[in-house]
Amino acid sequence: MSAAIADDSVPNVAIEWAFVGPDVRVSRYRCRAPQPGRTEEQSQPWHVIAFPHAGAFVHHDARGAQVVDAIGVLFLNAGAPYQTSHPFGCGDCGSALVLSADLVCAAAFTSARGPLSIAIGTGCD
What we know:
This protein is mainly beta. 6% of the residues lie in helices and 41% in strands. It is built from one helix and ten strands.
């Protein structure tokens, strides 16, 4: 995982690192969106599993729009474009697992019997 990616590389998101390892990072985040409307398109530089703690927002991507709140989890692929909106108010916050591409590929394509033989559209070698 690149240590060179700046903490402020995701617009409108404040990130504090609780743990930084070679393949996994743990963060606390707070949304800094200044208004409830849709944000500009953005993407994460990492693969992220986000666990909202408080607040809610709408995540918009090529598959549609979904409400994300404290009873759900949000999976974000590195480089995948998305927008958010905040019809319930701004300032949502939570924690996240940030995973290296190598770890995601190893986890997604390994089973008890060894690596899976088909990897379609994943970017994994």
